[in-house]
Amino acid sequence: MVDASEQQFATKPKAPRPIRHQFSIANLLGLLALVALSLGFVITTIRLREAERELTRLRNEVGYLEPTEAGQIAAVRLASEEPMTYRLRVRIPTGSKYRLVYSSMWPRGATAPSWFGAVPISPGESTLLVRVMKDPRDDRWKIAALGQSTDQRRRIATVLPTEQIEVFRGSHDWLASGIPQTTTIRSSGQTIRLLDERVLVGEGAMMLYGDRPPDEDMIGVFAELQPDVGPI
Length: 232
Fold this sequence. Notes:
By secondary structure, the protein is α+β, with helices and mostly antiparallel strands. The chain has helices at 4-11, 25-62, 162-169; strands spanning 72-78, 85-92, 98-106, 117-121, 124-135, 140-148, 153-159, 173-178, 184-187, 192-200, 218-227.
């Protein structure tokens, strides 16, 4: 005869054995593949960001013009590390005649600078340069404009009067405007004020004239892309 306590002990279920997780070669290969993909994604992201920064730098140096429609002109300002040296890139549609006009004087009461000269700009893309400098060939200070495309290079310069030379050589604040380092687009037949760099000199130096005619003569670097029709 079996005792009751012994019967309970005999019928008591056994504790389940702990489940042992097995790690197969297939699991290992899958984990390695996941790590490799994650690492590749991180590296690709880093390289893409570096490439975007380099592309931005190159665009600022060479001047990237966004696509335009037929019958539109476009311009962008390029980076320049030299003082009083301004670089730009423009696009002119086929069949349009344009010119780059420049000046260093905006007369009092006038609605625009007194343009000194003009450089014809060919259809297509061109690089423009406007600069105030001492010409090493004759030691005279000039404001010069240059237009260069794939098929031609044109340059013109104007000797600066003594009173302007003293201003440019002095230490003054500048009010800089004109187009930015992003593409500016206009319809063909319109103008683009490329540069409006005013030297702030005298009692009215801190006055911001906006589009109003200045209350006194303003010295600076001014340039405009305009249709090549009639006198400047």
